[in-house]
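Section 5.1 Outputs to date
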Amino acid sequence: MRRLRGVIFKRVGDGRPYPEHDLSSSAWATLPPRQVRLDELITTKDTLRLDTLLDEDSTFYGDLFAHVVRWRGELYLEDGLHRALRAALQQRHVLHARVHDMTDA
């Protein structure tokens, strides 16, 4: 994973540093997707299942867009690590994502 840090993502994290937001799938769906640069994202997972990355139907039952949380000025990739890596493998530098802005509680 060391090569991913700074090359694809801003940082590879392990866990969510922000408080729980309790957004449901339908609440995420109300957020309009926008482009986010991969090198601005901090992952909240440090592992990925290869079968998820390679599965062409990986978005069949889920949201087509990644989920990103903006907290304390940072962008955290909460859901969609496989989409982000697939974008990087296709030489793309941006990802379409739904971004939830959290304010410090």
